[in-house]
């Protein structure tokens, strides 16, 4: 009688666990995700900045998993768990009992208790958020083109990115390229290169998890792209007029902007809370669940938590970072444990970290080797193409990049979705009555 | 002093008019569109059926028009016109006077007075509608996979396309391929090939504007793909349970389905009504505006109407069809008239008509030459790639097609947007309590 393995979430952790269990005789696998696709999150910021299309960075889960006869995929959302009876409650039914459960439900944006900020400062965790951000960025230039009032125009041309980690750095860099290259010559009343792009972080340097020399290189590259970094500032309020910040030496200040993007932090998924409560384990910082060296929750060797939801200590005692390679390796590890092949503890093999800033600009950290500039950028390109799921995606992404690189263009800069987003509604009346008359 | 030319709408008519006026000394051009992109509508059904991505069939208007220094693009919507004072009212302001006005605002879906049907039977005129239809189609298979009740499962696996013109034929053919090829092996509890695809039309043959032999070829191809055509039937009601039809010989019948797509007709854009009222000209059938042989509205040589909104008689006295080549040629014609280069009347040069049904299956009508099968299909492929705007789009679309052709796959089959569409909300409770237990 094969074991029933349930995998919650089709992100990097869940997908790599599922693939490693695919076609094995002694397990039957159920993969549950709210979406019908795997999302390649490291490239999501490129969807938000019009370089790639949603389908370039997403791949249907069924297409990759259905070839395994021991696997089924369910489009559904887990909302609760009965640990005793080994049953998951989905939003529309109860699943049959699992023998092993792999929880890989990831993280969501975190506004440090100020959930009202979300409306004004969208984060970047889903495809919908990415297209919403793209909409906001492109619409801001359109609105600036038509705005007569100088202060308002300047607010439309001010872009604030909160958070100086890899996502914030990548977003700010891409904004710099949009303003300086992509939109050059597209408008008659504004010069997109006049856009102010502000990257805020409350620590004293960007890319806090990287070595200090790479932080400095990243900052230099951003400044070349016209991005202004503001370090050591704390965001105290976000609303439709912009961001209020506080810094030690400057005190409180208001930054007037209609486009604020959030890259300041994530918190464990909602299901993590349910699991912690039902299994009687504590939630750590950022609503993550502490797991042991086998990726199990305390006292239960049948429940694994991996990826961004898990908090696991590395060999140096510090928690492993919330990056894709950790989730992938944990996924493969728990699969081999479930199959009884792996006895030892999980070891994270750190292949290095990369953050891209723009055209030919990136920083790479491979242990003692620190790279920046074109070589780092090429490594980034190569590695991301290599890991991109789906043969077709890989070719199309490569071509789009090649094309965008050669032409300074971005093919996917469409404003779709609600034709009147909240910003448009709120500010439409502010356009002067005579358009360019 | 250059003339001020205002072009309303960036579809085929407006775009081709704008390009022909680009860089000319004696005109200044304002192009107004509600969206920031030109949409290649002939391939929209491929977005709806997961073959292409939105950005493959859309191209930013600014990217193609901004290189002309005499041209500006405004993201806005015209809602009224003052013909005397030559001023357009946008939803957020009034434009300075035009010397010449080109109205190319196209058509929208038409439900023959039953606007409530729109919720249940989306049409295919915009990118948002295309992704909504894709969502509906893919979600139906997911819902069927989890449905225990046989009648409900059969309703999820029944797809109804209303309207047997080119769009309806293309949608039904693509549905046949999705069910038979793309999703093969993806599910555990249903066989997608069991899906019923019904193509309804109230006339006695498909593709009514084509020669009868091609209608028959198209029908044969559809039947090979598993599509059932129901001709001579009239739709009398559409709601969440499906479609009620009436036919001469069978009387009234109810078709149980949760996925109904509308391809039965279009009507002139809303702005057309305002123009007709203000200019004192009558609205013809389908809310179109009759124009003379110079594409002018009666009695006003400064206002041109082109594309799907215009009703113009061809040499045989019949109205010109609402297809892209007519709009393109009218666009170029009015540009040359505005520049004083063209004195004679507009002549439509009919290069032929093509409708694709599926893999290697299409019908082509080039005057006396009637083609079907692979040759027609290759012509369709070649012509659509040739006219596709944007070098990058062309390469990416070609690659996607090549890949999909070779693998029977569809890369863009993502269910995005609202995670709980109206169908999911309404029917979630119908899933039996134990999922596959």
What would you say this structure looks like, in words?
2 copies of one chain form a homodimer. Chain A is an alpha/beta fold and 437 residues long. Chain A is built from 12 helices and 26 strands. In chain A, 32% of the residues lie in helices and 26% in strands. In chain A, the strands form 8 sheets. Chain A has a 6-stranded mixed β-sheet. In chain A, β20 (296-297) and β21 form a beta hairpin. Chain A is globular, with a radius of gyration of 23 Å. Residues 419-437 of chain A have low confidence and may be disordered. At the A-B interface, β4, β5, β8, α4 and α11 of A face β4, β5, β8, α4 and α11 of B. β26 of chain A pairs parallel with β8 of chain B, so a sheet runs across the interface.
Low-confidence stretches of chain A: 419-437
What's the level 1 CATH class of the largest domain in chain A? Alpha Beta
Arrangement of strands in the largest sheet of chain A: 5-2-1-9-21-20
Major protein interface: A-B, 67 and 68 residues
What do the pLDDT scores of chain A average to? 90
- Give the beta-strand count of chain A: 26
Topology record:
2 copies of one chain form a homodimer.
Chain A: E1 3-8, H1 12-21, E2 27-33, E3 37-39, H2 44-48, E4 58-60, H3 61-65, E5 71-75, E6 78-82, E7 87-90, E8 93-95, E9 100-103, E10 107-109, H4 127-146, H5 150-156, E11 158-162, H6 166-182, E12 196-201, H7 212-224, E13 227-231, E14 233-239, E15 242-247, E16 251-256, E17 259-262, E18 266-268, H8 270-279, E19 289-290, E20 296-297, E21 300-305, E22 310-311, H9 324-338, E23 353-358, E24 361-366, E25 369-372, H10 374-387, H11 391-407, H12 422-427, E26 434-435
Parallel strand pairs in A: 1-2, 1-9, 2-5, 9-21, 11-12, 11-17, 12-13, 19-22
Antiparallel strand pairs in A: 3-4, 6-7, 7-8, 10-18, 14-15, 15-16, 20-21, 23-24, 24-25
């Amino acid at each position: 009688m094969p074991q029933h393995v349930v995998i919650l979430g089709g992100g990097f952790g869940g997908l790599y666990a599922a693939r490693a269990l695919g076609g094995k005789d002694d397990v039957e696998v159920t993969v549950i995700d709210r979406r019908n696709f795997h999302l390649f999150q490291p490239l999501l910021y490129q969807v938000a900045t019009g370089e790639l299309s949603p389908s370039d960075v997403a791949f249907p889960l069924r297409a990759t998993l259905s070839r395994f006869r021991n696997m089924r995929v369910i489009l559904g959302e887990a909302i609760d768990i009965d640990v005793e009876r080994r049953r998951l409650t989905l939003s529309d039914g109860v699943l049959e009992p699992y023998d092993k459960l792999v929880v890989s439900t990831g993280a969501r944006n975190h506004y440090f208790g100020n959930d009202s900020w979300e409306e004004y400062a969208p984060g970047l965790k889903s495809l919908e958020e990415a297209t919403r951000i793209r909409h906001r960025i492109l619409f801001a230039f359109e609105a600036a083109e038509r705005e007569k009032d100088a202060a308002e125009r300047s607010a439309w041309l001010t872009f604030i990115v909160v958070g100086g980690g890899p996502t914030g750095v990548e977003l700010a860099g891409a904004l710099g390229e949009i303003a300086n290259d992509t939109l050059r010559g597209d408008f008659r009343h504004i010069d997109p290169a006049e856009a102010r792009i502000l990257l805020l972080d409350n620590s004293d340097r960007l890319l806090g998890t990287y070595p200090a020399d790479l932080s400095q290189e990243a900052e230099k590259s951003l400044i070349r792209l016209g991005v202004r970094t503001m370090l050591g500032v704390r965001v105290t309020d976000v609303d439709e007029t912009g961001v209020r910040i506080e810094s030690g030496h400057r005190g409180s200040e208001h930054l007037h902007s209609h486009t604020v993007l959030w890259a300041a932090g994530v918190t464990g998924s909602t299901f993590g809370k349910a699991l912690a409560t039902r299994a009687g384990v504590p939630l750590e910082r950022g609503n993550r669940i502490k797991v042991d060296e086998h990726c199990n929750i305390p006292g239960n060797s049948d429940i694994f938590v991996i990826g961004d939801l898990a908090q696991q200590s590395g060999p140096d005692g510090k928690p492993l970072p919330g990056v894709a390679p950790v989730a992938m390796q944990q996924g493969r590890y728990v699969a081999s444990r479930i199959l009884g092949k792996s006895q030892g503890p999980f070891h994270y093999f750190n292949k290095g970290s990369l953050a891209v800033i723009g055209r030919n600009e990136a920083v790479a950290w491979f242990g003692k080797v620190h790279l920046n500039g074109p070589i780092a950028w090429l490594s980034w390109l190569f590695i991301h193409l290599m890991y991109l799921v789906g043969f077709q995606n890989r070719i199309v992404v490569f071509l789009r990049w090649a094309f965008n690189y050669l032409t300074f263009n971005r093919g996917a800069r469409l404003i779709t979705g609600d034709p009147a987003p909240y910003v448009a509604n709120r500010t439409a009346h502010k356009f002067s009555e005579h358009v360019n008359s």
